[in-house]
Amino acid sequence: AQSVTQLDSQVPVFEEAPVELRCNYSSSVSVYLFWYVQYPNQGLQLLLKYLSGSTLVESINGFEAEFNKSQTSFHLRKPSVHISDTAEYFCAVSDQGAQKLVFGQGTRLTINP
Amino acid sequence: NAGVTQTPKFQVLKTGQSMTLQCAQDMNHEYMSWYRQDPGMGLRLIHYSVGAGITDQGEVPNGYNVSRSTTEDFPLRLLSAAPSQTSVYFCASSYPLGGSYNSPLHFGNGTRLTVT
Questions:
Q1: Count of Cβ atoms closer than 10 Å to residue B1 Cβ
Q2: By CA distance, what is A91's nearest residue in B?
Q3: Which of A16, B41, B53, B76 could form a disulfide with B21 if both were Cys (CB 3.0 to 4.6 A apart)?
Q4: What is the pLDDT of residue B2?
Q5: Which ranges in A1-113 belong to alpha helices (H)?
């Protein structure tokens, strides 16, 4: 069975500071990995995904994540955050493509001015 | 393009009552699913469907029924509501017919359900 652990339930940072949201997974087979973002009172939106190929994946708004197979991790990073990045971030894993996902507990990112 | 539409947005039920949460998508997606979101637990899969007439159980199916008579609709039924079913429910779809198996999930905006 697969599982995902997000190590921090809340991460407060100052605007323009760097941030890392940690995600570890367990799976006995090849995996697909995802980060979703949930803004207040909305559904989840895909931020980025790792399916195969390059282990470093990037989003259009400056986030990146690196698949580390030996450490079974898929941490999300951004070098300089903005107030608009305030949201809850979910890491997810699947062994069946992009549909049947197992989600982590979520990390609430709060940006202070 | 409306995407994934969930109704109602809010609902309060008494213990033992039944109701149906509606989900419709207009993207011709084959795959549809229901998740519940609880604080500190992330999202957990309740039921899913890979096409009309085909449904299967997820991680937490007890107390919920689904059916998929059309490609567009995937209603979730609570047969006898319990306080433990107080949660935010999300419907999600993906995988357009003939499209990529790795197309991402599209989520609705959720239904916030309270059972008293």
A1: 4
A2: B42
A3: B76
A4: 78
A5: none
CB contacts, 8 Å: B104 with chain A: 34, 46, 49, 98
In this structure, are residues B28 and B96 in contact, taking their beta carbons and an 8 Å threshold? yes
- The owner of tokens 């008494």 is B14
Contact A92, A4 (CB under 8 A): yes
Instruction: Give the phi and the psi of residue B71 in degrees, each rounded to 5.
Output: -65, -35
Look up residue B111 and give its two tokens.
Answer: 């239904």
- pLDDT-based confidence at residue A23 (cuts at 50, 70, 90): very high
Segment B57-61 shows an average pLDDT of 94
d(CA A34, CA A41): 21
- Amino acid at site B92: A
d(CA A16, CA A113): 9
pLDDT interval class at A1 (50, 70, 90)? confident
pLDDT at A29 > cutoff 80: no
Distance from CA of A46 to the nearest CA of B (A): 7
Strands (E), B14-99: 19-25, 29-38, 42-51, 54-57, 64-66, 76-78, 87-96
Q: Determine the longest span between alpha carbons in chain A, in angstroms.
A: 43
Residue B58 CA to chain centroid, in angstroms?
11
Q: What is the pLDDT of residues B62-99, one digit of tens each?
A: 999 999 999 999 999 999 999 999 999 999 998 765 55
Residues of B in contact with A103 (CB under 8 A): 35, 42-44
